[in-house]
Amino acid sequence: MKKINFNGRFFIIGGVIVLLVCLGGLKLAAVGKENSKRNFVKEDIEEFKLSDYYIYIRETNIDENFGEVTDSDKARKIAEDVWRENYGIESKDYENLLIYYDFDEDAWLVKADIPENRVEKVPHILIDSRKGKVLGVWREMTTAVVNGL
Predict the structure, then answer these.
(1) How far is C-alpha 39 from the chain's CA centre?
(2) Mean pLDDT of 43-68
(3) N or C: which end of the chain has fewer CB within 10 A?
């Protein structure tokens, strides 16, 4: 019977192979998580183009970064907090919050929706998805009309 000689080189090579397999698995898991995060957003959120809102992006007194905004719930929470702080308004004062996402620029647009036959200033907010920085916040006079009247 032949005696197998296990020297240190065998264990080092085996350890390197195991380490590479583990790192590859972790990388695949991270990529899969990122893809599923964006796919979830894309299925549930309507799109908008940030370039249509450049006129509203201006210096703002909100320097806080809220962290990465990966879903509509966090975008809604940021909008509610900023509107409450800047305008003293609550989201419950509005019928719904409309949430949009720009997949090219990684930005959120959240705006309030008012009931029919009502005219008022409606709050809007633009949020950078990567850092959670508020790009712009404003109120715009809006009318919700029934049957084009």
Answers:
(1) 12
(2) 84
(3) N
